Amino acid sequence: MGASRIHCSGDARRLARRRLPWMVFDYIDGAAGEEHGAALARTALQDIRLRTRVLVNVSERSLAKPVFGRVAQRPFGIAPMGMCNLSGPGADLMLARLAADYQVPLGVSTVASTPLERMIEVAQGHAWFQLYFSGDGSAALRLVDRAEAAGYDTLVLTLDVPEVGRRPRELRHGFKMPFRIGPRQFMDFALHPRWSLSTLLHGRPQLANFTTADKFDRTDSRGSADWSYLDRLRDRWKGRLVVKGVLDAEDAERLKAAGVDAIQVSSHGARQLDSAPVPIHALQAIRAALGPEFPLFYDSGLRSGEDAIKALSCGADFTFFGRILQFAIAAGGEAGLRALWHVLSDEASLTLAQMGLTASAQVKPPSSP
Q1: CATH number of the structural domain spanning residue 318
Q2: Is residue 13 within 8 Å of 304, Cβ to Cβ?
């Protein structure tokens, strides 16, 4: 029933807010500080205007977009997100099946609630492993070895979390990872019986990529990661290396020189620093600094297929959606996820038509040839 009521990402969010415990909803939806940065990111995307053309035959349109030698059937993929199974039992595998069906990259988080080996299997190889540095980096390197053994060919190193940002909504609810239930959380869950009973039936979501020896503490500092660590990782990982969380053109130029294969411009969904640069503006500056050929990906603040096309017009080669996919799952399970995916696809295709374009690959920044 929830799936039939999803006509935009805002509908999915509204339904999810009603159905999820407050703690879970605010973990997915919340941002850093006063959340002004999140609002600015949205406003900046909303303010972008696209060039529209008429008398172009756009009756046949393609959303396919090449990325790392493969043709994705959409110009957007699935961003890595931690503990997705909080949005609904089996959410990770719903996302993996979606990635397989549309041949789009699925970001598999270090803190996923399904083992990385299972995720790439269900995604039929359309999966990239997202890596967090932690401690002295040794546990992260063991995960790198596991990813290689499982068949991943793309590693996404996330560098915008030297320390976990302060997210007041999480703090008010006492959110913890690994997931813990105290009296306050118990009352919250009791007021949301549909989610609670379903979660109880399927088991509490866990951090699936960690052993007893390699425990993960979300609050541990990652502040010791530096350029020498990147060099070590680049030497060790023979596949494609993407660095995610870049908002500075000078950093981007140095990363390119260090041999990374792509950069993902991202503010971590505004979850890290309330006063971080507006990511869509950073994307434009980084594209200008790196030139037209270097692969640039984008996430943060995207809420529609039209937003994805806007990001392409600002210099992205490919885009990623995050939390709105979790909202769709919370709203209507796998049917809800598919419903929102079709909405995003329709929005992107209609945007191309209004622009007088027949393929997402034709979307370029204004100065591009």
Answers
A1: 3.20.20.70
A2: no
Give the model confidence (pLDDT) of 42-88 as tens digits: 999 999 999 999 999 999 999 999 999 999 999 999 999 998 999 99
The SS3 of residue 99 is helix
Does residue 368 form part of some domain? no
130 annotated as belonging to a binding site for a ligand: yes
Residue 124, marked binder = no
Quote the tokens at residue 76: 């957007």
192 has binding-site annotation:
no
Identify whether 268 is a catalytic site residue.
yes
From the list 115, 188, 198, the residue with the least C-alpha distance to 152 is 115
| pTM score of the predicted model | 0.93
Residue 256 resides in a domain: yes
Task: Give the model confidence (pLDDT) of 133-175 as tens digits.
Answer: 877 778 888 999 999 999 999 999 999 887 887 888 888 877 7
Which whole-number Å values give the CA distances from 250 to 64, 145, 288, 367, in the listed order?
Answer: 31, 30, 11, 21
Residue 167 counted as an annotated binding residue: yes
Catalytic residue among 192, 202, 268, 342: 268
